Amino acid sequence: MTARRWIQAAALLALVVLVLGRWQAVATGNAWWAATLEIGATHAFLSRIRATLRVSALLVATVWCVGNLLLVYRSIRSVHVPRRLGDLEILEAVPRRLLLVGAVAAGVLLAVALSHGAGEWWYARTLGGFHAPLGVRDPVLGHDLSYYLFRLPWQRTLHSFVTLLTGVLLATTAVLYAAVGAIRWSRRRLRVNELARWHLAFLAAAFALALLWGYRLEPAEYVAGVHDLPVDQVLTAVRIPVARMLSVLALVALGGSLMWLWTGRLVLLGVPWALLALGSFAGHYVVPSFAGAVRSSAELVLPDIEARRPQFESIAYGAVTSERPLDVVGARTRATGERGTELDGGVQWDGFAVTVLLNRVAAPELEHAFTEASLGMYRTTDGTSVPVYVAARVTDPAAARAAGQEVTWDEVHLGRYATARGAIAVRADAVAESGLPLYVPNTRTPEVSSARVVETALGDSTILVGPGLTDFAILPATGARRGVPLGGFWRRLTLAWLLQSPRLVTSDAVGDSTIVVWHRDVVTRLERFAPFARFGQARAVVIDGRLFWVANGYVSARGFPLSPPVRWRDQTVRYLRSSLVGVVDAASGETVVYLTREADPVTLAWAQLAPQVLRPAAELPRSILPNVPYPEESLTAQIAILQRSTPGSAALEQPVLGPSVSGSLVGQEPYWWVGPTMGDTVPRLRLLVPLEGYESGRLAGLLDGTVRQSALVLELYRADRSDEPLGPGQIARQFARLRGEAVGIAGVVRMLPLAGGLAAVQSSYASPGDGGAPPQLVDVAVSLGGGVGSGPSLRVALERLRADASPPEGDRREWTRARQWFDRMDAARRTGDWAAFGRAYDELRRLLLPRGDSIR
Predict the structure, then answer these.
(1) Is residue 632 a contact partner of residue 687, using CB atoms and an 8 Å limit?
(2) Torsion of CA 605, 608, 610, 613, to 10 degrees
């Protein structure tokens, strides 16, 4: 060979080595990482599925594309290209070998494009082979729900691939045949030579089969909501029968394609395909629109199906709520006159204020920052629950670079930026006289606190894994750290290729006995550990002197019968459940994912498919259980379901929560609380959401999400529709009037359903001096039983509220109602609703004037 050929061969070989070497390094390194976390078998199982899908899809696409293009190549007798010789222009024939190479290369490139992303089919493929009937059938087609969760997604994936292959190749070969003259217009007729006719007829028949398959899947897709169409009279009486009719037309088109193959008469091809195209357009757009227009809203409703909708929504979103009346005054207040006893020891600090404060007073180094403070419940020696915020210190090399500091490779991966140390715990229910928080030296005794900034006691204060940690770390292989040993040269080379860091091979600071740890961000680590789930925000929890990260895991599906869609992480889903709890040891990187009790069907399927990854709920440590949070993203979806009106229904046009004098309901931002409620006397970590009327701002209800014995529990406290209390926005304005002039930044208004009545708490903060000063808690406002009070702490605010003049015991309820009607009258005045103003005025006059008196 010539030197040029040798250079070309060497370049091609280098490219192949780079691609295959990178692929091998990623596969090997990920296998080592999984082995350190004791999930090697599951990782290998899923990796084999991914590799099999990639290879199979590429092989099928290559055979299909190259084979079809070779048939086109065989029909070409010669191809001439113009060439100039001096002043002469001649036509030069392209060598047949070059045409053959071009056809094969084009086929391979087309196959790579069409099979791209096949490795992402692993989720649908793995669940597609799982068979476990759920015992619940949809009321339209009678399929078991397992069909929609497990088999339908894989069938749709295969159908999309087959349709893409047949459709693209049919169009491509038709264009190529027209370009080479095998298809031409001559003497007012379209003429196709014999080879092209046989080839195109075969492709048309294959495309008709793909369409037939799609029309057979359409009814199930309709019921699953894949096409975002309501399950109503139009769907059952029009769309599903039309899909079956189109299946017949696809068979006719298949027969017409085969008849054209044998007879050569184009009319046998054109008429069936024209009928199919016309029928598809009319059946999907024209006929359903007309059928929906001629029916009233009431006629569109299917009562039997609507009656079963709540059952399917509860399976899809876990939106099963136990409903309780929201007692504004409270049974305990009426019986004993005690006001706000449950608020003693309640949460005063907001998480954002604690985070800002710690970053200003406890992170002196530029590269250090505190994670978002997480509220938890910790027990004293006598069993009393104390709310405590915990925030861990993490490193941020980007901040040091932004400040102009020189940051070296050794510092990022081996030195000061590799790991951080320590966490700080803050009493959420207490404040010092200076307005600053009290710090907890040891979470085993949270009742002992200090006004000085102190680190909380940890057995190992190293923060190896934490939110936002993206750089790999190289550490000594000591203790229980979960990392991959570096070892010899070839092992280092593999890891250097995987992590794109040649210094792993060349650095003298890296020894053979050290380990490398990557995937250090908590959410990333959990999603690599359990790739079939997505995890929410990690929360810091200190248990027995060890810092853990706890996060909720979610599984989702695009289609599910009788389930309304919700937006979740920039996608639309009809199934969203959280039955997983991920726990990561911050110091060692040990990672475990547990099931919750009463887990959903998809999660249970993965528990059987990946037993190494998912642990049963019974193994969840009891010490962690009190601080397992209710899944915030699930609650957001559940609120959307509870507020949603049934589409296309005149009889069910009110929200699922029921009619409200406040009009449509709006779920406010969730907030955390530790303590009991009027329906649950046990102190727990709670996620609460007030439901506020969009128009009037009145409170229609409160949602309370808790985890009890590793099971998710959601309770709805519904306000009396004829006497809805003030909503969070109105309470915030009331507190602002109470404080007078602005005092700084106000926290969230926490609406609390307590045994002593409906309470509201809001804290305000101010930073004296420059912007770098720590925020101080300057005011806590409380509303309870119609009374309000404020002070420098929650205890003082409650004392002032209790000491405030109040009516005699017998008139307490009337006085509370008078306050509520006055607030309603004021709200009506601001909105200009004079009819509501008049009603509120009449009620207020009736309550305040002695009987028999009147205003002349």
Answers:
(1) yes
(2) 100
46 and 107 assigned to the same domain: yes
Of 99, 121, 143, at which residue does a domain stop? Answer: 121
Helix 812-831 to helix 728-739 angle (10° resolution) is: 100
- Which residue in the block uniquely carries the two structure tokens 């082995």? 35
pLDDT band at 249 (very low <50, low <70, confident <90, very high): very high
Do 70 and 114 belong to one domain?
yes
Domain total of the chain? 3
CA distance 24 to 3: 31
Q: What angle in degrees, to the nearest 10, is found between the helix axes of 266-281 and 240-263?
A: 170
Residue 64 maps to a domain: yes
pLDDT tens digit string along 647-680?
332 222 334 444 343 444 455 789 999 999 988 8
Output b/e per residue, 296-331; b: 16+ Cβ within 10 A.
eeeebbbeebbeebeebbebbbbbebeebebbbbbe
What is the spatial distance between Cα 802 and Cα 449, in angstroms, rounded to a whole number?
Answer: 27
Which residue, 90, 121, 152, sits at the end of a domain?
121
421 belongs to a structural domain: no
Rounded Cα gap, residues 816 and 821, in angstroms? 9
The answer to whether the CB of 32 falls within 8 A of the CB of 69 is no
DSSP 22: H
Structure tokens at 731: 């309470």
Residue the block writes with tokens 């999660």? 603
Question: Which whole-number Å values give the CA distances from 322 to 64, 600, 666, in the listed order?
Answer: 57, 19, 20
Same domain, 29 and 58: no
29 and 45 part of one domain: no
* pLDDT tens readout for residues 462-482: 999 999 999 999 998 877 889
- Amino acid (one-letter) located at 731: I
Q: Dump strand ranges (E) for 380-531.
A: 385-395, 420-421, 423-427, 439-440, 462-463, 473-476, 484-485, 514-517
Token duo for residue 457: 């006691």
Together in a domain, 96 and 42 = yes
Q: Which amino acid is at 208?
A: A
Q: Which residue shows structure tokens 């029909």? A: 75
Both 27 and 83 in one domain: the answer is no
Assess whether 51 and 89 both reside in one domain: yes
Which has the closest alpha carbon to 437: 346, 354, 541, 352?
Answer: 354
495 lies in some domain: yes
542, pLDDT greater than 60: yes
CB 678 within 8 A of CB 753: yes
Extract long-range pairs of 96-103: CB within 8 Å, 24+ residues apart. Answer: 99/73, 100/70, 100/73, 103/66, 103/69, 103/70, 103/72, 103/73
Using one digit for the tens of pLDDT, what is the confidence trace for 65-105? 999 999 988 877 655 556 666 666 665 566 778 878 888 99
Which residue range is the domain that position 480 belongs to? Answer: 1-33+473-517
Residue 668: what pLDDT?
Answer: 72
- Please indicate, yes or no, whether residues 28 and 51 belong to a single structural domain of this protein: no
Q: Please give the DSSP secondary-structure letter assigned to residue 380.
A: -
Could you tell me if 219 and 246 are in contact, meaning their C-beta atoms sit under 8 angstroms apart? no
Closest to 149 measured CA to CA, from 614, 604, 601: 601
For the stretch 209-225, pLDDT in tens is 999 999 999 999 999 99
Assigned token pair, 604: 């249970």
User: For residue 700, which amino acid is it?
Assistant: A
305 located within any domain: no
- Does residue 421 contact residue 393 with C-beta atoms inside 8 Å? yes
Residues whose CB is less than 8 angstroms from the CB of residue 264 and which lie 6 or more positions away in sequence, other chains included: 192, 194, 197
Q: Is residue 537 a contact partner of residue 584, using CB atoms and an 8 Å limit?
A: no
